[in-house]
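Design request, tokens follow.
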């Protein structure tokens, strides 16, 4: 039994008690690699600034890169600890899920919390209401899934 749900940037396929998340082509900055590179960019700037001849520019660039890195530290922590990049999720790993409509009302996000503590977010278009049968499927097939 295959069930398919249309998401904002792809689709989710339910097959043999496993969720397969297929994403369409996305911008590089939205991909996992793009997010990692953006979070680690200040480290490269700090490293490059040590090779500058001018002392004032060297310490100014280190100071600016440190401020940027401290702002990106939260993003880096989220990428390392919390976010799941898995495109194949067995339903037995889903502990609970949470629905979150966005401020404009165009999208509804479903946050799947996995048994490892990581979170996978799937965005659905609100008007298509694909999130309703998806959450019903989660409730019916997951023994441990709870709505948060």
């Amino acid at each position: 039994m295959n069930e398919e749900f249309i998401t904002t940037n792809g689709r989710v396929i339910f097959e043999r008690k496993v969720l397969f998340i297929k994403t369409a082509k996305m911008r590089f900055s939205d991909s996992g690699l793009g997010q990692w590179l953006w979070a680690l960019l200040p480290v490269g700037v700090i490293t490059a600034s040590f090779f500058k001849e001018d002392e004032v520019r060297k310490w100014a660039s280190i100071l600016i890169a440190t401020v940027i890195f401290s702002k990106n530290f939260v993003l880096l922590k989220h990428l390392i600890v919390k976010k799941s990049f898995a495109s194949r999720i067995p339903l037995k790993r889903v502990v609970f899920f949470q629905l979150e409509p966005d401020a404009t009302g165009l999208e509804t996000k479903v946050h799947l919390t996995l048994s490892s503590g990581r979170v996978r977010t799937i965005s659905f278009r609100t008007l298509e209401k694909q999130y309703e049968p998806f959450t019903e499927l989660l409730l019916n097939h997951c023994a441990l899934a709870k709505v948060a």
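Comment from the thread starter after seeing the answer: thanks! The chain has a mean pLDDT of 80.
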